[in-house]
Amino acid sequence: MKWDPRIEEMPAEQLAELQYKRMKTLVYRLYSFSDFYHRRMKENRVHPDDIRSLDDVTKLPFMYKSDLRDNYPDKIFTASQDELVRYHVSSGTTGKPTVVGYTQNDLELWTTSLARGLTACGLGRGDVMQVSYGYGLFTGGLGLHYGAERIGATVVPTSVGNTERQIELMQDLRVTAIACTPSYMVHMGEVAEKMGVSIEKDTNLKTAVLGAEPWSEQMRTHIQNEMGIRAYNIFGTSEISGPMFCDCAEQNGIHIWGDMAYTEIIDPETGEQLQPGEKGELVMTILQKEALPMIRYRIGDITSLDTSLCACGRTHPRIDRLQGRVDDMLIIRGINVFPSQVEHALLGIPEVSGHFMIIVDKKGALDEMLVQVEMNPGAFSDKVQDIMEIRTKVSHILRNSLNISVGVELAAPGTLPRFEGKAKRVIDRRLN
Ligand code: ADP
Ligand code: ZN
Question: If both were cysteines, with which of 59, 89, 317, 381 could 386 make a disulfide (CB 3.0 to 4.6 Å apart)?
C-alpha cells in the first residue's frame, strides 16, 4: 500500500525536475525576503540566477546548527509570529537547544511525510499505535501522533515512562504498533518479561517504528526475533521538522521523499559532494518549509545514499542506516570509533547483551577506552574462570572489529543504566 502512489512512484526524471523547481523557488524567496540568507549568499558570491540545474546546488553555502544557536530563538525564521502554530525545542544532545517554529503548512508537510512512511511500514486503519516517544518540546511524540492519526490508526499517547502501565495498556487496548527509541523498546521487553508477559505471545504487537538514536542491524534482528515483530527505522531531526522518514517493508534503507527534501552526502572535511554508495555526512535541503527553511543543512549524521529503484516500487532515494553523528565519533589513539560499531560487535556475542557503556579516559598521554557490557542471564556465572574466558572473548572481538584494543568489564544482568529517551552511552572523561 502507498499513501500517495502518484508522488511515491513518480519517475526519477520528473522527480528531479520537481526538486529543481522547488529549489529555485526557495532560493529566490530566501534571497529576496530573508536578511540571513541574503547575506549568506552575498558573502559566498552566489546569486539565485546561478542555480541553473540541481548540480548547481553545490554553489550554495551550507547551514550549520550553530546558525540556529547564534540566532536563538527565532531570528532567522521566515514567517511572522502570527503565522506560527507551534514551537518545538531540540533536546540539545550536542549543546545549547535550538528552537523550531512551524506554520500550519509546515505541520501539514511533516504529517504527510509520516503518513507516507507509516503506510510504507504496513500500517493503516485498524492499527492501534502506542506512541511512547516523549510528548512535549521533543518532536517525537507529537510528530508520530499526528502521522498515525492521519492514516486512520488509533493512537494511544502514552509518552515515555511508567513502563509497566504501558505494557498493561498494550494488552488491554490490543496495541498493534509502537513508536519509541530502540533502547526503550528493549527496556520494555525486559520489563514485560519481569511481569510475566511475552510481547510475542501475550500482546497483539506486530510493528515497531524505532528511531531518534543510532542502532544497529543486529539490534533490529534481535528485537524482531525476541518479540515476534517487524522493526522499522525512522529518522529525522528537529531542524527538518522532526522524525520524518522511515524504511519501507523491504527494510533496505530509509526513503527520503524527494518532493520534500533534496539530499546530499558530502565529505565532512572538504565539503565536496560524494557519489551514491559513498559514506559521508548527510546534508539536506527541505524544499517547502515556510517558518524555518533549511538550505544545505549539515545534519552531521554519517550515512550513504542509494538512488536505485527500491523493490517496493518507490522511486525516491534512500539513505543507509545512520551510524551516528560526525561529533558522536570518538577518536581513540587516532582511530575513529562509533558507539554503533560497539553495539554491532557486542550483539554478535551470545554471552553478552546490547546494554553497554563506553568510558573514555586518558592514561598519561594515551587514550583508554573501556567497554562495560551486561552479561546475558544464561551466561552469568559465579565461576571466575568462566567470566575471565568470556571477557577475553569480548575484548578479542572488539579489537578485531574496532582495530584498537579496549578494556572490557562484564556487568551483572540488569545493572547498567536503561534509557527512556535517547540513550547516552558514552562518558568521555578526556573532556574534563
Ligand atoms: P538533538 O540534536 O537535540 O539530539 P533531535 O532530537 O532533533 O535533536 O535529534 C536528531 C538526531 O538524532 C539526528 O541528527 C541523529 O543523530 C539522531 N537520530 C534520529 N533518528 C535516528 C535514527 N533512526 N538512527 C540514527 N540516529 C538517529
Ligand atoms: Zn522501498
Answer: 381
What are the pocket residues of ligand 1 if the criterion is a CB atom closer than 6 Å to any ligand atom? Answer: 90-94, 211-214, 233-235, 237-238, 299, 301, 322, 325
Domain 1-327, architecture per CATH: 3-Layer(aba) Sandwich (3.40)
Q: For residue 316, with 0-12 CB atoms within 10 Å meaning exposed, 13-18 middle and 19 or more buried, which class applies?
A: buried
Domain 329-431 is found in CATH 2.40.160.10? no
- In order along its 432 residues, the chain shows pLDDT tens digits of 999 999 999 999 999 999 999 999 999 999 999 999 999 999 999 999 999 999 999 999 999 999 998 999 999 999 999 999 999 998 666 667 899 999 999 999 999 999 999 999 999 999 999 999 999 999 999 999 999 999 999 999 999 999 999 999 999 999 999 999 999 999 999 999 999 999 999 999 999 999 999 999 999 999 999 999 999 999 999 999 999 999 999 999 999 999 999 999 999 999 999 999 999 999 999 999 999 999 999 999 999 999 999 999 999 999 999 988 888 889 898 888 999 999 999 999 999 999 999 999 988 888 999 999 999 999 988 888 999 999 999 999 999 999 999 999 999 999 999 998 888 999 999 876
Write the residue with the smallest CA distance to atom 11 of ligand 1. 237
Confirm if 320 and 280 have CB atoms less than 8 A apart: no
Residue 325 alpha carbon to ligand 1 centre in Å: 8
- For residue 266, the one-letter residue type is I
Ligand approaching nearest to the C-alpha of 98: 1
Q: Which of 102, 235, 419 to mutate to test the pocket of ligand 1 (most atoms within 8 A of CB)?
A: 235
pTM for this structure? 0.91
One-character DSSP codes across 355-385: EEEEEEEEETTEEEEEEEEEEPGGG--S-HH
Residue ranges of the domains in the chain?
A: 1-327, 329-431
Tell me the three cell numbers of residue 180: 519509541
Atom nearest to 325 CA in ligand 1: 16
- Beta strand 177-180 pairing with 207-211: parallel
Specify the residue with its C-alpha closest to ligand 1, atom 7.
237
